[in-house]
């Protein structure tokens, strides 16, 4: 089942949105163990589905009307709780919807919200183990992490608990769980999608993006969510763009060779992405995928992103710095968790925040306070922002030699739950290939390209130049036309879909 | 990291670190900061910080909102999550100046 | 006993609430007096997911101020986060400006004891105001003594205006504060209502032995919301510091509050520890670019400044510094006078100033009105002056007519009606027969009558009592119902008494 097939079924009245919604709600209920969802409200979903069916009956539907969507719990929603997977917001009810939610929902594209998905607390993490509601489980092997921070969304898509989901990516949080769960996800150019209503982690790095099984489905979702929002000063004005416009088209429009649709495409392969430390099976899978692209007519060239390793300290200075400030509003005064025991105002603050936040969040807040503090600001925060520019410039240099960059999403496949949670640094090092794109603000995506011998998915990362999402989705779509990785499903995902 | 440094950071962040957690936290922060210290070796003379990634795409210009009242009274909805309130006020333990 | 001659060093930081419709970063209203939290929207409450968007009106006000003080309006300025925790600060940080403020430099002239002094300004920047804590005893969820937080004020646009530490006395500081206060109201960027907190001064005060180059340690006295308290607080703080040093102690850099009842400054508990605000550029806001076109557009529409008007009126019309000072004390009065000047010839400018500074000003003060709401309009003043000049009425009658028009106007406005503008003065003159009697024959007739009826005064005058002359003049004016031309009366009476 894909968005495209579901769309056909709905407008041909083969299925109703209520039927589809019920189908997924039942699956969600059956697969509670995966812990993909934090909040499910069947009545709210069905009410939306009924509205969607009405629109379809009146012939007033859009492409996505009546199709289900799950939202990462980092987006605020009316009706469903908005927790950011934190005890701090454990019972928080937002009086407004995030712009992304609005655009996809009944006032916009007409999608039906199935619920809020699990994630790492306040989007800080790469495994979904930092959730106050327990980890989400990788449907390919329940002992393994699904990746993070958009772990719940990735699990939901991979296990057939939704057709598509929203995620956010600050350092790889869409791409890496997509890779670990064998699905497709894209982080757009910074500024493409409004951050209004996205619970902030690191403001200059956060971006919202779609997660689904295929690139073409992601393209439909991009159409719905992209666009300038007056409520987000950092969102960019672009002419209305149709991200599906290049799907199926040859890369070179003058090329009529259907078996070599990517003729003319130059793929840059950063040599630093293949340095030591890259898991051997991942390396093999990526190399195979690159060969597949060559078979489709593309040419690979080696490029260099010299600061790849340095992106880790740059990110882990900047993100905690911005986070430490963004999370200061969680003080138990106007909303959120307030401690039961305190003797005065100062204690109310410290107890509420200490009890309400998890360990990783507190660590990053302290790191952030450190790198912004008097005496350290220049050496850490400012220095990191300067190296950030060098990293962005290095990408521009690389793009003079190629159209897109490709490589692994992560140095490893999913690891066992608990395996890396003792050592935060070990987890940080897993982000090495994804962080740079956030620092530069470039669009980047993950598409499934294989499995390791234990059956754990491997993802291929594609990084494009600014605003080139349509081209990236075009390239990914050709790969997915020629391969089957994206249509594989974990055994937990019981067949029985109606089409 | 010295205990005083951690306590100072915790105070700045309105967080409390229990005695028995200070050592573990100190180690964790140490290793993170060691990671961060890699930044020092890079020569960034003449490089401007990239505070906003979109500077790479477009000139940075804060959009201006027309001076109009667009938000009406939504006190009840906005205060629905308040842990303590009274007659429209948020309540906190007494503030002493 | 101290042999040291102390010098006082003062710098002022003023927070002026800008007169916009909405808040600096959200679309909520900033109108004063609403019920708690009715004007605190999601952005103001820092609800999860909210983001700031900058108010154009606040930017324009900042530009006006920058132009008025002859400063540089920064083509690019940056918003920064000032991080600290306080219940009236919803985000846990204040959006302010740090390294790159919107206005740099500038100066304001003050006058103290007839001496003019230039007060240099360091900078002025935009920032958001915090909410309010009400310290009445509320009961918290566990019965604990609680304060109430009202965030209506959170997000109100502020312009923080900082001077160089160039003031040397409380008097200078107050003179500057008053001058700044008048200026921001004149420019229409701040309503100057100190009771409501629209204009708040913080004073940075230190002392040093006269002649010493280095500054002494300074203390900041916060939130002084009246000129009286500003002066008192500075005086007491100076004394405290001097006494402390002379007793062998050291001044500790800290923030203090002024207690007007005890008339002393005390340390602020909540700000005891030196705060590390961890300033960094706000990633949610892009740099503010101010184009020359915007600045030019604002400059073109700016009202002439009081100083400019004073100079012009002194030079063109020969008005006194006192009169022009009074007439430029508030914008409405100055504009009224400008309107009057448009309707009269140059030689009437001085009489106009006298009338405005005299009758008009006192009538307005009595009713606590501002000139734009005065029942007497510029055309009335102009006509009164003309009719006085051409002899139709006397000065005294003019004053009477002024009062009559005033009353007429007040009553009309109560009934929500308006009164006649052009021609009203003539109408009153005719209706009440107030024409001055200048006919020599007519006056002589009255004088003769009065002389006959007041032989005693005539006697006394002839025997040298000057006062008796005035008594006779009084009787003549009375007999003529005030309409006799005083100049004529004087001349003719003198003749007749010889």
What is the gist of this entry?
The complex is a heterotrimer of chains A (about 500), B (about 100) and C (about 500). With about 100 residues, chain B is α+β, with helices and mostly antiparallel strands.
Distance between the termini of chain C: 73 Å
Helical stretch tally of chain B: 3
Number of domains of chain C: 3
* Biggest sheet architecture of chain C: 10 strands, mixed
- What is the name of the CATH architecture of one domain in chain B? Orthogonal Bundle
Mind telling me the CATH class of one domain in chain B? Answer: Mainly Alpha
For the largest interface, the chains and their residue counts are:
A-B, 71 and 52 residues
Q: What class do helices, strands and sheet pairing of chain C give?
A: alpha+beta
- The helix content of chain C is 25-40%
The radius of gyration of chain B is 23 Å
Secondary-structure class of chain B: alpha+beta
Helix content of chain B: 25-40%
Strand content of chain C: 15-25%
Shape verdict of chain B: flat
Radius of gyration of chain C: 30 Å
> Based on DSSP secondary structure assignment, what is the total number of beta strands of chain B?
3
> Looking at the chains present, what oligomeric state does this protein adopt?
heterotrimer
Overall outline of chain C: elongated
Give the count of helical stretches of chain C. Answer: 15
